[in-house]
Amino acid sequence: MASLGHDVVGIDVDEGKVADLTAGAAPFFEPGLAELLEEGVRSGRLRFAADPAAAAGAEVHFLAVGTPQSASGPAADLRFVDAAIDGLLPHLRPGAVVAGKSTVPVGTAARLARRIAQTGATLAWNPEFLREGWAVHDTLRPDRLVVGAEDTPQGAAAVDLLRRVYAAAIDAGAPFLVTDLATAELVKGAANAFLATKISFINAMAEIAEAAGADVTLLAEALGHDSRIGRRYLGSGIGFGGGCLPKDIRAFAARAQELGRGEAVGFLHEVDAINLRRRDRAVRLVVDALGGLVFGRRIAVLGAAFKPFSDDVRDSPALEVAVRLRGLGADVVVTDPAAIENARARHPQLGDEALRDADAVVVVTEWDEYRRELHPQHAGGLVRGRIVIDGRNCLDADAWRAAGWTYHGMGRR
Length: 413
Ligand SMILES: NC(=O)c1ccc[n+]([C@@H]2O[C@H](COP(=O)([O-])OP(=O)(O)OC[C@H]3O[C@@H](n4cnc5c(N)ncnc54)[C@H](O)[C@@H]3O)[C@@H](O)[C@H]2O)c1
Ligand SMILES: O=c1ccn([C@@H]2O[C@H](COP(=O)(O)OP(=O)(O)O[C@H]3O[C@H](CO)[C@@H](O)[C@H](O)[C@H]3O)[C@@H](O)[C@H]2O)c(=O)[nH]1
Fold this sequence. Notes:
Oligomer: single chain
Number of domains: 3
CATH architecture of the largest domain: 3-Layer(aba) Sandwich
Mean pLDDT: 95
Largest sheet: 5 strands, parallel
CATH superfamily of the largest domain: NAD(P)-binding Rossmann-like Domain
Number of strands: 12
Strand content: 5-15%
Bound molecules: nicotinamide-adenine-dinucleotide, uridine-5'-diphosphate-glucose
CATH class of the largest domain: Alpha Beta
Low-confidence stretches: none
Order of helices and strands: EHHEEHEHEHEHHEHHHHEHEHEHHEHE
Strand order of the largest sheet: 9-8-10-11-12
Radius of gyration: 23 Å
Number of helices: 16
Structural class: alpha/beta
């Protein structure tokens, strides 16, 4: 927003993050962000503060706090959203717009709209669709912008204001869709439910392919050429993780249940179950590849982040596979180009030396460093056993086999 010329203040209750950001350091790895941050701070258009009073008088307040899964069940925990509104209420001026970006259960926006109505400010819902690792690109060049507002003059004014805020993206071709509040919230939940379903669909096909001796990567390629289906999000392997898809499909199903329509999205429980089975399957493949004996064996796990171009290890399938192998008594060594510090902070018992003397190598995050740059001959010179388990179906199986490795994909020949 600052790079587009807006005057921006970022508020976070975490004073450590505020200090880092003020010094121009992003608290997470995100390609392209450091440059934008530095430029914003240097230009004076971007400041950070822990006190919501620093936001007093702003025209637009984006609300983007976390909505994690509740400790007690599948539903979203909205306490940070309500706390942020509590902090903001005394500082909202009449005519200001609060634009909700957090992923919330449908119905939340209407409730928050009532909470802020007394101030004369207006709530709009503007769900966020960015992908981690692509946040800069997805923010400046979004596939679409969705703004939900109430059908009132204040709602219409809020939509107009957000249209001006996003003028650069709209001019660059982003469709700008205006909806009611509930539809805007649902678009977000539905989008993530669809993406998760697509991934679990191909992973279900991987289970069948494995049983039938077929190859899921060729299947995905052939399916993907059908323009009605498309190739994206048909990447098979150990499945989806991260701070979004897993918690979001659970919260979506929980909210549908509250609305008395649980059966309409009953398939999301299956999507979740298929996804979690992939982690079990990866662990099993490693155990079987080692002849059933993992205790004391040295296993190199390549990847900790839930996906490449990210240092995020929230609900990372990669890290879970590593931790479970260690739980079986293996001597597990995890490496990752970006996420190793975050991984070690959560699981200090995981080491950081990788291939040397490994009895098996397990690829669980498809970083280019492993996909393209790790050569089977070179790796073969370091390990004790030439066994590779490709948890992301991302390696050139023929090249690894030609170098004398036993290659196991996930539903791949
Ligand atoms: N991470 C993504 O790629 C992504 C993409 C789209 C949507 N979302 C949604 O955006 C929201 C945030 O996700 P995230 O991954 O950035 O979460 P996060 O937990 O990494 O960050 C949330 C931040 O909010 C801060 N915070 C908590 N309470 C606050 C308060 N009262 N006032 C000010 N700051 C407060 C926290 O300190 C933290 O820095 C979630 O609803 C998520 O579902 C995330
Ligand atoms: O074909 C694929 C594509 C992705 N994944 C996995 O799916 C997870 C999510 O990937 P991705 O969607 O790229 O990452 P996120 O940053 O979590 O983004 C998702 O979640 C965000 C938060 O809601 C949304 O804003 C985004 O639109 C949505 O893509 C990762 O573990 C990937 O490894 C696969 O297994 N196969």
